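Entry for the shared binder. Reason: the reviewer on the internal report wants the predicted structure included alongside the sequence.
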Amino acid sequence: MILVRDHIAQLIAEAIHTAQKKGELPSFDLPEVPVTRARDETFGDYASPICMTLARVAGMAPLAIAQRVVAHLPAAPFIGKVEAAHPGFINLTLASRWLSQQVEVILAEGENFGQIDLGKGRSVQVEYISANPTGPLTVGSGRNGVLGDALANVLAAAGWRVQREYYINDMGTQVELFAASLYARYAQALGRDEPLPEGGYPGSYLVEMGRQLAQEFGDRFLTMERSQAIAALREEGLKRMLASIQADAAALGIRFDHWKSERSLYEDGTYSLVFDRLQAGGWLVYRDGAIWFTETPHQASGEAPSATEAQAAQITAKDGQDKDNVVVRSDGRPTYFASDIAYVWDKLVKRGFDRAIYVWGADHQGHVPRMKAVTRALGLDPDRITIILYQLVTLKRGGELVRMGKRTGEIITLREVIEEIGADATRFMLLTRAADSQMELDLTLAVQQSSENPVYYVQYGHARIASIFRYAQERGFSPEGGDVSLLTHPAELALIRQMVRLPETVALCAETLSPHHLTHYAQELATAFHAFYKDCRVVSEDARHAEIGRARMKLVQAAKIVLANTLRLIGVSAPESM
């Protein structure tokens, strides 16, 4: 389906070309015609500022251009009124008759309403959460997961073939510290005086895991050589932490199509391949015993050359802290950056995704340009990767800052938040702000049954519609035979105006990779429905109102479909009663 905004853009372009052919506008190359929702409903439904853009090349006042364009705008069934407005806008209002007919369109499309084909079947991988499997998920990881999962929903609705992935950091310093910490807790559970390693994990969750391992395996790991025991406990601990992470994600309605091991990138030769490719291209240099990535390639010589003073300065100047460009440490261990290099090759080449989207915390901002640079160095288009950065979450309860979890007196886990306010409220609330905006989650507000609580307000709209159908069914009232052309009341048309916005909202979210627009749209749709419910009686015992009642039943049925489809994209349930 072609979006209304895109159809309007095409019509405006046609009108400009017609005016040029008639000599009313001079010849010039026409740029892309922008069309947006009107900011003020008194100006109509859509507006285009294209004439202000054309003023310089046309040598005319924007308003004069707009008047000529409006005069030649082709007719279309969805356009009711068109006007040129100061200082040069073209404002368009949707036709009331066309709006009422969209009720039948929505009813015919059902669960498919809102789906579009921006992706054209291209493949995209969305990788999200990917928290180190060394502890329980936090509410910050929850925001990561909600952003990634809702974005995956949106991209699928927009015609992309989507894979959802969790990247498992199952090697490196943090994993080794986790394994050593678990060994200490396991030994302590068996009565041995074993201190935590320096920089280890002190959380109570490892105390509990150590106790469980002691119960299940007895002193089996204490009879092993220490390094061997730590290695065995690392695998056992990672398995249990991943099961916990999987359960927490599932509790939030988040699923993954694939779990990708960092270690596998080394085991299957991907890391060796990309290392050799970068070295052959002259992208690696030796300095201070380590191997570094540099954005200035050197003549390949079969081995990584040493960095000259100028090259070393270039690394520092272009990329900030040059420690972040280390690929292999001086002790021979590859860095996280080395794994990320192999991982982007795995995504774009080995598995062949057309696009790869990462959802990362804002503290990784400095890593973004390095990822773009190394993707280019590998001979790939850096625009094929997109990294979404999100701000962390501040929790409040009744206006008071919440710092510690109730259960452990430590960091607040995602599971604790879900148990307190529910998965629906958690998902919706964490999606109400743009990823790069600071996020405050008020746990008290999230459970209030009032219009102040956005998720309650939206879900109540769906439940209210369901109650209308139950009431109608009890009285033998049905939408059968309803004539939607009778839907002319301002509240009816206002509701339909919001309903037909869903495809464009999906497009907006997919184009900008910003799924938070869905929660705002859901609230605006619910507001329009509640206003309609207040002004327009649907089921009436008065026979004189039966005909309009059947038409309104169709409208309500369509509104239920659109609201449910929106909630499904957000990942929130659409309750039949509340």
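Summary line for the report: The two ends are 35 Å apart (CA to CA).
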